[in-house]
Structure formats: structure tokens, C-alpha cells
Design brief:
alpha/beta; 6-stranded parallel beta sheet
Length: about 180
């Protein structure tokens, strides 16, 4: 079939971009463990935080698995570094305040949260799932072997330890965001 793929456009435009200085990792999703891979994120973050104590993970969203996720955080004794912010309308501002975006999903349709992170200029870590195929074309995201929490943790560490690398990925993310503008 001779066709042209047209991706969903980004949901907002932000002339301001993240400064990438705050030691904050951000995730935006429905709090549903299985599809969104939040158990994998918590496990990866637990490994990551052992070496990088001053970073925070902010999870934005609400859902049926919130209590289970809070229990996972408590069992790992990392609640001082993990914040559950609930449903928020100020997503752009929260993204701009972060340094790294994470998409730990086991599956997705078209990840709009990733386009929003790209629009705000955030470097990203994600698992290699089919929904990421369009996002691989410009190398704007560190893509890890599916569900390998050690590799995911290492990718977080790599970005956390290298501000210049964060800026490099952020620049690529912004370039991709330009490709999916409504125009």
C-alpha cells in the first residue's frame, strides 16, 4: 500500500524549554501497573537511587493501582525520593521543571505524554516497544531492552551524570516535536 503516515500532533506548544538542572525525573500516565510498567519504573528507580541519592521521581496521574504503587515504594524505602502528584492540569509546568522524562510502558498506542516531554525539551528513557518506532528515527530517546530494569537504571544514571548528554538528547527531542506540529 502506497501511503503516508501522519502522526498525532503534539497537544501544546511551549516556547519555554526545560533547563534540565533540577534533579527530577518525571512520569505522566494513568496509574495502571500492567500496561504502564510502573512496577518496572519503581524497580529501576530503586536501583538508580542507590547511587544517586539527590534525585527525585515525580509520578503524575491517578488510577486504580495508586495504593499498590505507594506500597511498592514504601517496601523499597524510597518514599523520600518518590512523589505521587495525582491528576494535574499543569503538566507543561511540571515537565519544564524536570530534567529527565520516563516512559516505562509495556505497551502504548501513540504515547502523547512523550510528545509533550519532547515539546518541553526533555531527554527520555523508554523500553523498546512497538509504539516507539516513530520515535527512534532521530535518536532523541534512550531506548532500553524491553523490561530490563538494570539497563533502564543505567540509562537514568547515564543522563543524571552528564548534563551535556541531557542537553544533546533534549535538542533531538525538540527537533522531533517540530515534526509533529499541527501545521
Amino acid at each position: 500500500i502506497d501511503c503516508k503516515v501522519i502522526y498525532n500532533p503534539k497537544s501544546f506548544v511551549s516556547t519555554e524549554k526545560a533547563r534540565l538542572l533540577n534533579h527530577t525525573i518525571i512520569c505522566c500516565c494513568v496509574l495502571d501497573i500492567e500496561p504502564k510498567g510502573l512496577d518496572l519504573l519503581i524497580e529501576s528507580f530503586d536501583l538508580f537511587i542507590r547511587n544517586t541519592k539527590d534525585w527525585k521521581l515525580r509520578i503524575i496521574g491517578d488510577g486504580t493501582d495508586k495504593e499498590k504503587l505507594e506500597q511498592m515504594v514504601k517496601e523499597r524505602n524510597i518514599q523520600a525520593n518518590v512523589e505521587f502528584l495525582g491528576y494535574r492540569k499543569d503538566i507543561r509546568e511540571l515537565l519544564l521543571d524536570a530534567a529527565i522524562f520516563v516512559l516505562p510502558s509495556r505497551w502504548e498506542g501513540f504515547p502523547m505524554s512523550l510528545t509533550e516531554a519532547y515539546e518541553c525539551g526533555l531527554p527520555t528513557v523508554a523500553f523498546d516497544i512497538p509504539a516507539l518506532i516513530p520515535f527512534k528515527q532521530n535518536d532523541a530517546c534512550i531506548i532500553c531492552e524491553p523490561f530490563n530494569v538494570q539497563e533502564y537504571s543505567n540509562a537514568l544514571q547515564k543522563l543524571a551524570n552528564n548534563f551535556e548528554l541531557r542537553k544533546e538528547y533534549a535538542k533531538k527531542a525538540q527537533a522531533f516535536a517540530e515534526q509533529i506540529s499541527i501545521e
